[in-house]
Design a protein that fits this description.
The structure is a homodimer of 633-residue chains. With 633 residues, the first copy, chain A, is of the alpha+beta class. Among the domains of chain A are: 50 residues, Double Stranded RNA Binding Domain, CATH 3.30.160; 109 residues, Uridine Diphospho-n-acetylenolpyruvylglucosamine Reductase, domain 2 (2-Layer Sandwich), CATH 3.30.43; 118 residues, Uridine Diphospho-n-acetylenolpyruvylglucosamine Reductase, domain 3 (2-Layer Sandwich), CATH 3.30.465.10; 95 residues, GMP Synthetase, Chain A, domain 3 (2-Layer Sandwich). Chain A is 37% helix and 18% strand. Chain A is built from 19 helices and 21 strands. In chain A, the strands form five sheets. A seven-stranded antiparallel beta sheet of chain A has the order 18-15-17-16-20-21-19, with helices on both faces. Chain A has a five-stranded antiparallel beta sheet with strand order 8-9-13-11-12. A four-stranded mixed beta sheet of chain A has the order 4-5-7-6, with helices on one face. Chain A is globular, with a radius of gyration of 26 Å. The first copy, chain A, starts with a helix and ends in a 12-residue tail after the last helix. The relative contact order of chain A is 0.12. Chains A, B: It is an enzyme of class 2 (transferase). Chains A, B: Belongs to the FAD-binding oxidoreductase/transferase type 4 family. Chains A, B: It is found in: Peroxisome membrane. Chains A, B: Homodimer.
Chain lengths: 633, 633
């Protein structure tokens, strides 16, 4: 590995020298006045030294601010306060510190989950439940000599032993700890990663890259059969914006940067990537590349594959990167697409050049009420057909509409609840919408103010053709705000016998209604067949639109009281739901990825030959399975 | 291979059966009224049996309508008529049958090429110059038993032995024939291709897929070192539109279809793909996939990677295809991107599902004159920054503006020439544009009439900020029309000692001016250094805009009179031009691809590890190098 890397790097040096001599050739022999090379105007301007300021959402010891066995920040959680009302603690969110009067009743009526039946989590990790680390002494010595920070602390190791699948969080709540990494390292830059990978190859250590830790595909689970030392390569301290290029509207960023930090840093210069996955508070650029992430506003900014201009990844074979930052090329199969979606099986993404855009001048939320889901889907399909989708447009089904209501914070003003009541009367009694069938689309427009208002009119006009009624900005804004607190709700559920998960797919337009109906029905049937005592929550929304189809996002949760093995029941129902999705023409995943959770379907997804291609790349790049998370293949 | 294929196909059968049983499960146990599966509404509607009508631009014996040693149709060529005027023959084009009064003088003044100095082509192929075929008898017998049409005819074989690089056409004009395929086969459908590939694997025959034959990267050249029988797998008779899905706006098409036929067939149903590469009269869908093609109107319709929803390719290992037609997925690295750009090295693309759009209501051309190239580039950059590019926007330099003038057909009306003169006066004298510095952008808008007019205003307003002056629809329309006749001009040049080629790159915005200036200057210098007696034509245009850069297209041609080895001189200058492009931050290719012509730069383009990945895929998919065109690697 070391010799590959230095040969690779001296080769790149030779090529760079050659190029400089080509350009210098012009300077030596000026041809005529017009062709004087003005080299200075070619340099990336607008590089602000201050944007290299480190700005860490995520400290090395993440458990200082983040939950070790649940979602998100320690200080933010749903609880029932001493008055028995649901409340969201902390200060970080719009909802923080507020009472949510409807939530408790909703939990009871939806799940049969009452406050009497508690299943609290183990509050503190019992570190003696954590296996002592299997250390590879030579590797440890090697790391020490590099100066790269590391840890064998059981809390650090447990934190990085999992993502956020139900079957990963549930045991942690019970204080159960499975296979965890033996060591954590925190490289600070590309070269640190090169050294770490070289050492891992030399001493045969299993490396698992760890970015935001938000995987929901079991991608981060440590393979229990792994006998070598497992090292978690935590990228969070490798998180600088290295340069901003205002001429080309690109930024070069270290891959450990977290979504919220990236946007915040770029905003300071008046830019953004616009990439806003629901996990953006915690997920990392490297993770997005590894999983083919999708963001809420992809209609404007594109998905991750549209956003990246250049990627650098460290592999056991050496560093892979293209030599050019051109916008689009035909130079054989696109090697960026060997990296995108590789889910940590080939190497560590260290640096990425991303497209940036000026922060939009104007932003406007909106919402539309439809008489039923079918009309809503037809409207979204028409919006896609006319290629006039807003930055974001999402259609939730009736259950999610009810759920959204349950999450309304206590309003301080009588006037606002009067208004709400008036709206409700108008929509249900006056317009004749059936509250058990209506559904809501939330919208977000952004851009030049004038264009936004034009665009908005066009979309609402289409909505009207499908019986849609504009229902105001507030409902839209609340819908998007809730996105970031939904994940905290599962922890509340799990305090009261309720377990659940989200899963998603992409599907051609003409299959959307069937998939929504069939998958929700299948979930209900499977729960019944497996002895679940309470009606499950089985709900969906259309969360992205494309020319040729849509992304559909499901929530599934149930009260497991009375079941002896709830995780097993859950897994079986989820498995059946995925079979149902595939049978109805949906994909294995739109953006969550495959991980270990969905490996079994990979062969039928990409065909034998496709799977063989992926394996041949893996076998070439990482013959000793150093990147041994066992994802995908 | 046979066992792989039938195992693959019985596996797919099993999976399909499984899925049907999943869906049928719903029918057996109706859950409630709401969830009755209405299966019929899921079928692709709007499948018109008549669109499966075969419509062949390209007959099996292509030489019946196409030139065997030049570009395009036999009946269409530039000549000097008996009055010594340039004329374009035939009836197929807008320009056909017209006198082009300025062309002869332009040829003389630009190249020093006079009608006295002729280098006519050999009019007819001397079939005895063609090596007898090296036949693989077992393969031939196998093909005979399948009923797939085939030929050993020397004319058929020569036709498929080359693309349209200068170094391929020039020797043909001299009657020289190198290594050619030994046999041509014409499969008519996917299953024919499966049989052909199976036979090739079984009997170790080299297969070279042949679509439109328009390659300009030496991709189609037969490797002279190939000792096995070379079989040209001509896809042109596998060219049906299998279905149109109006619900999802997709069409499923056989990969041998030619661009003009595809659009014509879809237009009959009111649709289009909108994919219009300059080669579309002759190039094929399979070729576009294999080379990562780009179309003129990619700003609306996308490049080929944006257009494809599903691809089926036959390889020595079996058929590769995804199981889902979802719009966007995260299921590991995207195997479509292992196929796109594989340039015939992995297999034969047989069927593709492409996105289609309704034929736009309205189309409007336009043009803008800029005082100089720098202002024009700055304008295009601003249009890209505002993300308001028309369907097409191209900026040509001053030389191409002059050239465009030279190609004006004789106008029948005194009034039109008066108008032209008036425009010229206005632009040069009144507005003060210097005719030796001004340059022109051509534009095409399409869509809803109202939106087009708004869009047009926005673009012209931006142009005005950069000193641009609207110069009318005619100039725009002519610019695009000329696109299809330019390729014929090289044949005229070659009749009079002039040789030339186009080549292209993609490059970040801040490198565009330098690349244009440096590459053109380098070409001039290299010609001088190598003894070219006449000033070369060295010209460029910015032909596509992207967020992070542009595509730049160069023309390079010179009069080789007095040179003993013109092809060698040409190759050296082109090589130097590519080095100059790379040194200035341009890519190896935006859309022409790599072929054999640019292989030497692949390692530095994608890095050692990237190249190794591509090789590992090739070695897995085609271990015996059946697809032995030697492209890319």
């Amino acid at each position: 590995m070391a010799s590959n890397s230095s040969r690779g790097s001296s080769e790149r040096h030779r090529i760079a020298q050659h190029r400089l001599s080509v350009i210098a050739g012009h300077l030596q022999r000026p041809l005529n006045g017009d062709t004087t090379i003005r080299a200075t105007e070619c340099k990336a301007q607008g590089t602000r030294p201050d944007v290299a300021t480190e700005m860490k959402t995520v400290p090395r010891r993440r458990q200082e601010i983040m939950k070790w066995n649940g979602w998100g920040y320690n200080d933010s959680k749903f609880i029932y306060n001493k008055n028995g009302q649901a409340e969201f603690t902390g200060k970080r969110y719009r909802l923080s510190g507020m009472i949510i009067p409807g939530l408790r009743d909703w939990m009871e009526s939806t799940f049969g989950a009452t406050v009497q039946h508690k299943t609290p989590a183990t509050p503190v990790l019992n570190t003696s439940a954590v296996q002592p680390p299997t250390l590879n002494e030579a590797f440890v010595e090697g790391i020490k000599s590099t100066g790269i920070p590391f840890s064998h602390d059981p809390e650090d190791r447990v934190f990085r032993s999992h993502g956020h699948c139900l079957h990963e969080i549930f045991p942690l709540r019970e204080g159960k700890v499975g296979r965890v990494p033996d060591m954590v390292v925190w490289p600070k830059c590309h070269n640190d990663v090169v050294k770490t990978v070289e050492l891992a190859c030399k001493h045969n250590v299993c490396l698992i890259p760890f970015g935001g830790g938000t995987s929901v595909s079991s991608a981060l689970e440590c393979p229990p059969e792994e006998t070598r030392s497992i090292v978690s390569l935590d990228t969070s301290q490798m998180n600088r914006v290295l340069w901003i290029d205002e001429k080309n509207l690109t930024a070069h960023v270290e891959a450990g940067i977290i979504g919220q930090d990236l946007e915040r840093l770029l905003n300071e210069s008046g830019y953004c990537t616009g990439h806003e996955p629901d996990s953006m508070e915690f997920s990392s650029l490297g993770g997005w590349v590894a999983t083919r992430a999708s963001g809420m506003k992809k209609n404007i900014y594109g998905n991750i594959e549209d956003l990246v201009v250049h990627i650098k990844m460290v592999t056991p074979r050496g560093v892979i990167e293209k030599s050019c930052q051109g916008p689009r090329m035909s130079t054989g199969p696109d090697v960026h697409h060997f990296i995108l979606g590789s889910e940590g099986t080939l190497g560590v993404v260290t640096e990425v050049t991303m497209k940036i855009r000026p922060v939009p001048e104007y932003q406007k939320y909106g919402s539309v009420v439809f008489p039923n889901f079918e009309q809503g889907v037809a409207c979204l399909r028409e919006v896609a057909r006319q290629r006039c989708a807003p930055a974001s447009i999402r259609l939730m089904d009736n259950e999610q509409f009810q759920f959204g209501h349950a999450l309304k914070p206590q309003v301080s003003s009588i006037f606002t609840s009067f208004l709400d009541g008036l709206k409700k009367f108008y929509i249900t009694k006056f317009k004749g919408f059936d509250p058990s069938r209506l559904c809501v689309a939330t919208l977000l427009f952004e851009g030049d103010r004038e264009k936004v208002l034009q665009h908005e009119k066009q979309v609402y006009d289409i909505a009207a053709k499908f019986g849609g009624l504009a229902a105001g900005e507030d409902n839209g804004q609340r819908g998007y705000m809730l996105t970031f607190v939904i994940a905290y709700l599962r922890d509340l559920g799990m305090d009261y016998f309720v377990i659940g998960e989200s899963f998603e797919t992409s599907v051609p337009w003409d299959r959307v209604l069937d998939i929504c109906r069939n998958v929700k029905a299948r979930i209900v049937q499977e729960c019944k067949d497996r002895g679940v005592q309470f009606q499950p929550l089985s709900t969906c929304r259309v969360t992205q639109t494309y020319d040729a189809g849509a992304c559909v996002y499901f929530y599934f949760a149930f009260n497991y009281r009375g079941l002896s093995d709830p995780l097993h029941v859950y897994a079986q129902v989820e498995h059946a739901a995925r079979e149902e999705i595939l049978a109805n023409g949906g994909s294995l995943s739109h953006h969550h990825g495959v991980g270990k959770l969905r490996k079994e379907w990979m062969r039928e997804t990409v065909s034998d030959v496709g799977l063989g291609m992926l394996k041949s790349v893996k076998d070439y790049v990482d013959p000793n399975n150093i990147f041994g998370n066992r994802n995908l293949l």
